[in-house]
Specification:
The complex is a heterodimer.
Chain A (H helix, E strand, L loop, with lengths): L1 E10 L2 E11 L4 E6 L5 H9 L6 E6 L2 E5 L2 E2 L8 E4 L11 H5 L8 H14 L15 H14 L4 E5 L7 H18 L2 E5 L3 H7 L2 E6 L2 E4 L1
Parallel strand pairs in A: 3-9, 3-10, 7-8, 8-9
Antiparallel strand pairs in A: 1-2, 1-4, 4-5, 5-6, 10-11
Chain B lengths: L1 H18 L1 H7 L8 H42 E2 L3 H7 L8 H12 L4 H10 L11 H25 L2 H9 L4 H30 L2 H5 L5 H10 L4 H26 L15 E2 L2 H37 L3 H28 L1 H4 L4 H10 L7 H23 L4 H4 L3 H25 L3 H9 L4 H30 L2 H6 L7 H10 L3 H28 L2
Parallel strand pairs in B: 1-2
Helix pairs in contact in B: 1-16, 2-17, 3-7, 3-9, 5-7, 7-9, 8-9, 9-12, 11-12, 13-24, 14-19, 14-21, 17-19, 19-21, 20-21, 21-24, 23-24
The complex binds adenosine-5'-triphosphate and magnesium ion.
Magnesium ion binds next to helix 1 of chain A.
Chain lengths: 216, 532
């Protein structure tokens, strides 16, 4: 279970979030809606430990990750996965190297098995040797999801992962990714502009308005 | 996390400060009382120095920008006959030291050279002095230094998405308009970086300007020091050079602007196909530049070398070769490692203004003539030595003077800019999300650097290392002043012979250097084309 409490973020004097609270039950998928510039990405990045805030605490499965605006656990030790809007696949690594990046400490054999099973999960078998630039946008997005899932994160953050795909692909992928996440029962937060997408993807929906979160 | 960053920032700052040391020593010359000599210099020579240096910088700047950019664009975006081999052949002039190209051109075009003799005998055209005026020297510099702009612009054009060019075409833009409105603006930071290196090299050059009897800041510094024996005036003039470099760097930063053009995709699709006559005309142009800047000078030193081989060759050449090799390899390794540390993207966001300034200072040595760098170091060492006598009762002169370490220090100070420009350009291409996603995947700082940053920076690191290696091998004045006994290099030999007017014999060590340099370029090309 994730709980974010009393989060306040400001940039150059302008307050973006003030007293933002959010909690997500284990295994639930939560969708975060809000206008452009309302602070969705900032909230996500604070939860990941990538952004600083004036105030705010994060507790994940009973562990304090951030307390009163101070990150007590580094991003690399939080066991939080993130899927970025433009995928951020490492361009100099193959699909195999990308997906196994977070599990490099495993033996060669278990890495190979893990990557194969993840590729099966995202229905992209046999593309281990390809480079990101040889994949379509939707394929890159799936690989980026597989990479984030490889070391079984406790929480998965998705920042507008579908926004650069066309509508027909998007509806399909939204369904697929939801079923993948449900199968693995990963606690997830999806940031999106699109209300229909939020409804199709999430168990619960909240919207940022006036610097705070309102649950529908 | 924070503390580690702050701690590492302090180390990096100290490192940058140490590299910038010779600059501060040179700058401290202003603290000395003013001399009559300085006012003499300031009143009589300074105005002319400033104007001739300025003309040189402007001429060379325009020349290399146009030539380097046009060549890079043709080679990357247009398919024409011979494109593939010309693309790397255009790098080869890097292997020719500027002073070698200058003495070859003088040898060929001077009053007693083939060209003028032929013109006089067959066409009755009276002799002329190619040293007078600005054109000949500007052209020489453009032919030696265009590869800096070519190299940076080429890398940048290669990263431009073909879709952008195609979008321009779909909007009805003709090739020239696409070039001006899309490709050049996107490549502007790269062109500016190449131009900066060129102008710094031009400012620091001594060999070419003295062969052409052209007076610049550098020749004035030599004259202040050599003719008037005033290390203070030399240092004061040199510090003016540092100020000029600072302005150049400032303008380069401005030219880069706020925009950061992240993109890591490299496509090999050509935007234009030049067929028939147009293709061959383009070939002729590019080939012509290659001939003038590399093939013909090489042929000339080859001919001279054969003519005087038995006279000049001896076993000592193995020693020259070994000295050049050892110094080049160790200096390059040192410089590349430091430049990479200074440019790593993990620090970029956290670093303070002071640190950025220190790093900028550490790259200023590029505009200091090698000899001034050497004098600055010797001057500094002398003071350190005085301190050591005061505190420890013994001089450490004998450890520092004439040691390889001091020479390596000079190389690091002098050539940091080249490696840093190249490593930082590649590090700026790395989007922050890569670091962030690696961290979220549990990567430690070390692993992030090893697995993500270094491989992504590798093209820049290699390119920087290559340029530095060739430059260290060619370096003359600092090596001459600081080399330990018995460490004569090939460049020293070229200098010894050509300063006595023995150009034909100087062709032999020059030829070895050019071949050596050409091999480095080939290795680079192999590495460069393997990935991405
Ligand atoms: N690093 C930063 N420096 C300054 N201001 C920032 C920074 N990051 C975000 N902001 C500002 O904070 C506000 C919230 O940004 P954020 O990216 O969180 O919005 P968002 O809800 O994700 O918007 P979008 O839907 O467009 O992605 C914006 O006004 C933005 O300009
Ligand atoms: Mg956002």
């Amino acid at each position: 279970m994730l709980s974010v409490s009393n989060l306040s973020i400001s940039f150059d004097e302008s307050q973006v979030l003030e007293g933002f609270n959010l909690s997500v039950e284990s295994g639930d998928i939560f969708a975060l809606l809000g206008d452009s510039g309302s602070g969705k990405s900032s909230a996500l990045r604070f939860i990941a430990g990538l952004e600083n805030a004036m105030n705010g605490s994060v507790v994940l499965d009973g562990a304090d990750l951030s307390l009163n605006g101070v990150h007590s656990v580094k991003p690399e030790l939080r066991e939080i996965g993130m899927v970025f809007q433009d995928y951020a696949l490492f361009p100099h690594m193959t699909v195999f190297q990308n997906i196994s990046f977070g599990i490099d400490h495993l033996s060669k054999k278990s890495k190979t098995e893990k990557v194969a099973s993840l590729l099966e999960l995202i229905s992209l078998k046999g593309i281990e040797k390809k480079y990101p630039h040889q994949l379509s946008g939707g394929e890159q997005q799936r690989v980026s999801l597989a990479r984030a899932l490889a070391n079984s994160p406790k929480l998965l953050l998705l920042d507008e992962p579908f926004s650069s795909l066309d509508k027909s692909h998007r509806d399909e992928l939204v369904k697929d990714v939801r079923s993948i996440l449900k199968k693995q029962s990963v606690t997830s937060i999806l940031v999106t502009h699109d209300e229909a997408e939020a409804k199709a993807f999430a168990d619960k929906i909240g919207k940022i308005e006036k610097k705070q979160l309102f649950i529908n | 996390m924070k503390e580690i960053l702050i701690k590492s920032n302090i180390w990096v700052g100290a490192l940058a400060l140490a590299i910038a040391l010779p600059i501060f020593v040179v700058g401290s010359a202003w603290l000395l009382p003013g001399t009559d000599l300085w006012s003499h210099f300031a009143q009589t020579l300074l105005p002319e120095l400033v104007s001739s240096t300025l003309i040189l910088l402007i001429g060379v700047g325009i020349g290399v920008s146009v030539l380097g950019t046009v060549l890079a664009y043709l080679v990357v975006m247009v398919d024409f006959p011979g494109r593939a081999w010309l693309e790397w052949a255009l790098f080869l002039p890097f292997a020719i030291p500027a002073y070698v190209l200058a003495f070859v051109y003088l040898g060929v075009f001077d009053y007693s050279g083939y060209v003028q003799v032929w013109l006089r005998e067959y066409l009755g055209i009276p002799g002329f002095d190619i040293r007078s005026g600005h054109w000949a020297i500007i052209l020489t510099f453009v032919l030696v230094f265009y590869p800096y702009v070519y190299m940076m612009a080429r890398a940048s054009f290669k990263r431009q998405k073909i879709q952008m060019i195609e979008a321009g075409k779909m909007l009805g833009a003709k090739p020239l308009r696409v070039f001006w409105r899309i490709s050049v603006p996107l490549a502007r930071p790269a062109i500016a970086a190449g131009l900066l290196v060129t102008l710094m090299e031009t400012l620091a050059d001594f060999g070419v300007v003295s062969l052409f009897n052209y007076s610049t800041f550098t020749t004035a510094i030599y004259s202040a020091w050599g003719d008037f024996r005033s290390i203070e005036v030399a240092a004061q003039l040199a510090s003016l050079l540092v100020v000029v470099s600072f302005f150049l760097i400032y303008f380069e930063r401005k030219a880069r602007g706020k925009a950061k053009y992240y993109s890591s995709d490299v496509s090999n699709i050509k935007a234009y196909y030049a067929k028939g006559l147009t293709g061959w005309l383009i070939f002729l142009f590019v080939f012509g530049v290659f001939m003038l800047s590399f093939a013909m000078p090489l042929l000339q030193i080859l001919i001279w070398s054969v003519e005087v081989f038995t006279l000049e060759w001896s076993d000592r050449y193995f020693d020259y070769f070994a000295s050049s090799g050892i110094l080049t390899i160790s200096a390059t390794a040192l410089i590349v490692v430091i430049a990479t540390i200074l440019a790593l993207p993990s620090r970029r966001k956290s670093e303070s203004k002071t640190l950025q300034l220190l790093i900028r200072f550490s790259t200023l040595g590029y505009a200091l003539p090698g000899s001034v760098m050497a004098v600055g170091l010797l001057y500094g060492v002398q003071n350190i030595s005085l301190i050591s006598i005061y505190f420890a009762g013994s001089s450490i002169n004998h450890i520092l003077f004439g040691s390889v370490a001091l020479l390596l220090f000079a190389y690091v100070s002098r050539f940091m800019a080249i490696a840093y420009n190249s490593t930082s350009a590649s590090s700026e291409q790395i989007k922050p999300v890569y670091g962030q996603s690696a961290k979220l995947l549990g990567a430690s700082r070390l692993r992030l650097i090893q697995k993500v940053y270094l491989p992504m920076m590798m093209p820049g690191i290699l390119a920087g290392g290559l340029l530095v290696a060739v430059d260290v091998m060619k370096e003359l004045p600092a090596t001459y002043l600081l080399r330990p006994f018995g460490w004569d290099t090939l460049a020293i030999r070229v200098f010894e012979l050509s300063s006595e007017g023995l150009y034909e014999r100087a062709a032999i060590p020059a030829l070895i250097m050019v071949v050596f340099g050409a091999i480095i370029m080939l290795i680079f090309n192999k590495l460069d084309s393997e990935k991405y």
